[in-house]
Amino acid sequence: MKRLAIGGVVGLGLVGGALATQLESGPTYEPWIDPLPEYAVSAGYWDFRDTEGGLAIPWWPDTWFGWDPPRGDGPLLIDRRHATKQLETDSLTIDAYSYDSQHGLHRAFEPARVSGVRLQPVWEPWTPGALGGASAVFINLVSGDNPGFRHSEVLALESFVRHGGGLVLITDHTNCYFHAEMLQELSDAFGFDIWPNTASDRGDGNRLSPRSVAWIRVRPSEVEHPVTRDVDIAGWMNGGVVKPHDDSELDGLMQNSAEGWADLLDPYKKAESSGFTGNLKWDDDELAGPHSVVLAGRHGQGRVVVLADQNAWGSTLVGYEDNSRLFANALGWAMGTDLDLEVRGPRSVTVVGGNRSLCTSAADYGFRTMSVQVQRLSEERSYPEFCTADAATDSQGVLLLPEAERADLVELLDRDHVLAVIDPEHAGSLAVLEQLGLSWEAGEPVSGLTWHEPHPELRNPVFDEVPAEEPVTLSPIRLDRAGTVIASAQGVPVVVEIDGVRLLLAPELLANAAMGGERERPWQESPERATAHRAAFHLLDGLFPAP
User: Fold this and answer.
1) How far apart are CA 38 and CA 254, in angstroms?
2) Using an 8 Å Cβ cutoff, are 296 and 302 in contact?
3) Distance of CA 468 to the CA centre of its chain
4) Cβ proximity of 314 and 102 under 8 Å
5) DSSP calls for 10-26
6) How far apart are CA 227 and CA 249, in angstroms?
7) Is the pLDDT score of 90 beyond 60?
8) Inter-CA distances, 205 with 161, 198, 234, 235, 356, Å
9) Which residues contact 15 (CB under 8 A, 6 or more apart)?
10) Is pTM, for the whole model, over 0.90?
11) Which domains does the chain have, with CATH numbers?
């Protein structure tokens, strides 16, 4: 690095006079994208270039942390200067439909709150004085419409970790929002690269949705580490690729499969986006997997964790498989402690899907939007929500989706609150009916859904105007016995309860095609959309008994 000698004195308040020193200038980097997309410039995503770099006293952080080192019982500092998207305070409330609330990190940080960790947002530049006495730093996905990292900030953060502090850093796909460029000096200081790629994969067992090669299941590498303790599968929703330098002490802990690849960015694909996602097809110039999506390791006396997807910890995905465990492990290990977390315990609701993970699928046959309703109710009732295809569960509330084929089906049906979505085209649904001793036959279309019990009292606009008969046409299957009828259409049962298990006999009522996109406001879209959302709340409410 270039050093600039500065004449004069630095007023450090040292007894006996002043101390002459040298200031060091930060490195300069060439733009990764040229020419710059017009939208990125007009939206301010290039502003960080005007505030990064600068001068710093190279030895000052080490001196400071000799006086005021990191402390294991200190606060967890949260960057609010460079990272302002999807905060640790953003949660998916019952009437929230924004992107930030659906991917906010409130729930992901709950184990830290429960364990008494002090979460302390920091809006000012990182300095040794701001960092001294803290346990760790959390930097969420940074974006170029915020200030860049000053050279002095990078030196302070690197020294803080080297003296025993922790760092958890969130990156993402394809240099979105210019985050990889913003972090280039910081990632170099800690010995890893952020690739301008999206971690992609092929094959049903490796993907969360048949419509996307970037909604994927990632698995641990061969490296054993506390961050991946009790983690078998995590879900990635358009995440990135990170790679340690050859001389780094960081290890790749989670990765996509050998069938996967690193999909290269295309900054000009969408004129009104700074997401820079590529074509999501395996091209000849793209590298086959596996590729690392989680890094962790020592840096001096401290610890560093890099998680290459932001949405994986948001409200709508943190409950998937082992995501919540992975995030709690990452925070705890960076701080030098363990964070208590009960996954799929009694006071929780578990969505049980299949190998194609319907609870996160964006396909028409899937129930992605309905699963977001589950998560809204989870926040409303303070019951953690989880989703699994394979893992065991102690949850007393269980939602069985059509592809759920389980050896423990008998045990699951014996839980306190069970709702099964029945689709005879899937073996999981047939197993549920067989276990309940039920026979079925196809039904004819019927119109007008009527509920035979009151709607839940929820503060969502879909309940502002509720028709006596819902405007929907369905084709529910016919059972050889009806049990208690919860809802019907033209006298035909649509929702029934038999032996303590509620059965939805017309799965199209809650399919994505009926409910619309997960961020659509159904009361503004159509009466049919509002009906589907009311139905979801009505059916799912029983899984979350009010306190």
Assistant:
1) 35
2) no
3) 38
4) yes
5) B----TTS-B--EEEEP
6) 15
7) yes
8) 38, 18, 12, 12, 6
9) none
10) yes
11) 37-335 (3.40.50.880), 349-541 (3.40.50)
